[in-house]
Amino acid sequence: MDTKFDAGLDAMLEAAKSAIAYRRSIIEANNSPVSGYRELFNAFASPVPERGGDPRVIITNLIAHSIPGIRAMTGPRFFGWVIGGSHPTGVAADWLASAWGQNAANTMAAPAASAVEAVAANWLLDLLDLPRQSSVGFVTGATVANFVCLAAARSEVLRRVGWDVEGDGMFGAPPITVLIGEDAHATVYSALKYLGLGARRVVEIETDAVGRMKIAAFEQAIRQNNGPLIAIAQAGQINTGACDHFGEMCTMVAERQGWLHVDGAFGLWARASSSRAQLVTGVEKADSWATDGHKWLQVPYDCGYAIVRDAEAHRRAMAISASYLPPAEGEERDPSAFVPELSRRARGFATWAMIQQLGRCGIAEMIEQCCAVAAHMAAQLSAQTDILLVCPVELNQFMIVFGRGDDEFRDGMTLSVIHQVQEDAVLFVGSAKWRNRWVMRVSVCSMETTFKEGEKAVEAILTAWQKVKSA
Ligand SMILES: Cc1ncc(COP(=O)(O)O)c(C=O)c1O
Fold this sequence. Notes:
alpha/beta, Aspartate Aminotransferase, domain 2
């Protein structure tokens, strides 16, 4: 055997050992990296190497340079953004996807990667209880899932008025009315931008105190606009977790022969839990859904799903064909027919493994646990007379503000507490603006976050608050 090749295999083993040691340490680890960006940049930087090196040394150095800058996102007390825990089983499957080096573009080239994705797609439709004929594209995350679903929407609403957008583009196309809630996620606007639908030319619908579209405003906007229509709802507002009134909205959009898309990056998973499913009642009547595997399913990054009721519209918007790419036959499904990329990661392995790992009951329990821990933390914090819960906890997200006094005073106190919490590093939590005021926003999205860990985090937040008050 080639010794250089062997050294590469040793490096794989070294990487695995280091990763396992890291994951063991993360439960108690600090939540902040010990080195900053500049220091880390300098550690990695050097002139371009003229000759290749020893794989073991390369990997050892990579680990040594990186560890001081790794944030404990997979730990039990990470409450920033909306971050799943990258479960070890999903990571193991994802390692194999890399090691096997499959280009999961088509069935002929990568039969196992294609087959596992097809099975995982069926399982997702079953778990989320969405129309079983829907097609599923395995993409990098909800940002791209929103893009893919809206590309299918654009294709279909224009096809219905006799316009072929895949062939003729957007120049001269009949205008499409896009309705979107005022509190939609920023990435949906990105998708609109990529699609030539314009982030600024949407009709924004007024929302209520938790960010849910007001149904009367939605109805009025539908009545005031004619022609091709795309409406974008959401399951799980990024700050409040609120979900739109899907049933009524779907009926109104269907009557207008429009398309209703749901950004359900994390909130769509409420469907997998019988105690939370009522929050997303009627969502199954929509035309497309974007969601993530790397959030509530605990699949490692990057993994999202673009789900489209009309598989033909999905395929029309995305499929790639060339004489050197043998198309799938019969019942076979080419993964690249439903995503923007040709060469692509085999994402089905990790999704299949995580669904096997948790099972239907495990997924439901995890969702219920996250929601219950979020509610418990919010109740403990807001039991303090000078900490205010901004909105009732609907799902797994909540916001709190600190201090009694005017808005400016509260903004200052809230940002100081967040800064102090980040410095103390027992947990990670971030800030956001809600209704123009700064809030501490907490997302409970990892199955590692038990009640005990939630209580530990609350204690650390209260300690930080005491420090800020006595400063
Ligand atoms: C509601 C919503 N939509 C879209 C996104 C973007 O998802 P991703 O970062 O996986 O692309 C997020 C991310 O948190 C989200 O919460």
